[in-house]
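*** Backbone structure tokens ***
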Amino acid sequence: MTAKRIPWVAVAVAAGVGVAFVMLALFVRDHAYRMYDDAFIYLRYVKNVRAGCGLRFNCDDPPVEGFTSPAYLALLVAGSLVTKRLVTLTQVVCTVAIAATLVVAIAGAAARWVGDPEDETNGGGAHRAWIGAAIVVAVAAVLGLDHYVLANAVLGLETPVTSLVVTMAGLAVLTDRRRLALSLAVVSLLCRPECVLLVLLLPLLPWARSARVVALLAGSVLALTLVRWVVFHDFVPNTYWAKAGGTLRHAELGAAYIGELLGDHFPFIVLSPLALVVRGARRAVGYVLAVSAVWIAFFLRTGGDVFLFSRLAFPLVPLLTVLAARGVAEVAMRAARARPAVAAGALVLVAGAFSARAAVAHHLPPDHGDPKVIRWTALGEYLRDRYPGKTIATIPIGAIAYYSRLHVIDMLGLTMPAIAKAGRSLPPELLQRNWIGHERHCLECVLDAEPDLVVTTQFRAEPWTSVEEARAGFYAEWLFVRAVKEGRAPYHVVDAPIAPDLHFLMFQRDGE
């Protein structure tokens, strides 16, 4: 995606990539294995695929699409053919994907966009020497110095792979690589459900309105839907049903999530609409902005996300950063009356201010594990050794399921279609940021499954001894604990002594 450049713009690209790689390497050194619990859901699927169970969360259950990204899962399955260290595999795949995204964004910042003059050294506008290098430096600084960008390399989720595909697809559109843009838009369907926007909105571009292109786009969506129906007997991922939304309270939380994204986490992307002033590229830029706008606006329905670093919006960030840098450069060129050195200096100052703020405000101290995930890992190992062959019901199904190797009932429905499709959410007055994505519940579904153990998220330093002192952390847990206290669920309290001063609250079925 790199067009002809004058030599020292190429030097700027090499230097920018080099600095970004150094920052990424240092970050990974200090933060490796800071994984989210959902990463272990992928690893559970990997193990079951390798065991011949297919796409099942529990080998004796029907197939269920309880994961977000088929593409990321496929990469992990492929990697598992090389190594059995699956946790480390997530770190390698995600780090490589973030590194590749940085390369594509930084190099793409120097590429000639659709409509740019062929002669970049004489009348080439934003691609003159000063401006070309400044855009590259701006993108490298904004992305490479921000820990909230680099954090995606160690969280173990599909975000880096999605970011790479979205960035490449957007730059293919901006540089008028039509076949590549079309191919990447189709591939993106396997990365995250939101990527369907890359396909649905592609006909905003005149060249994508031909009968052949529209047929290909429609056919790709139809084919994926057909495969999903054949494998999972559903038209959308079960993860879609497992997420609530659509209330006024969700809209309020979603607006706050968008405000956090644009006001604190990645404010530089607010400048991306300035790229609309680039001559000849308005339609291509408009497509990228339209995809981004609809993607972000959907948070008003879902309420956003409980996890940090705006991970659901991050796949857009590298591409929008390129747009913002190019847009600022173009506006600065016009304001400086085509004096490239002045415009370049203005861009570097603006990007430098955003980068300096992020380097300070987003700094993450060295940390090699999420405390919650570390506790759930220990709990999973405890259950594996103490309760072999049992069925458990729990809410954090990642590390607990992966390490326990037991049959797991997901109380939130992510891997349980009956619970996900029950359609039950929290009362709006109880809904807070920490509940988003964890709202589904179906108490009778859990009780009908008759799990041997119900493992809660509650822990403390002292042993748990009675149901009267039991408490809950999630609404689905609260419903279950209330049922036990009222005598409607045949379970009694069991203490799980995981470590000194670490006791988890569990319930065992009466008679077990």
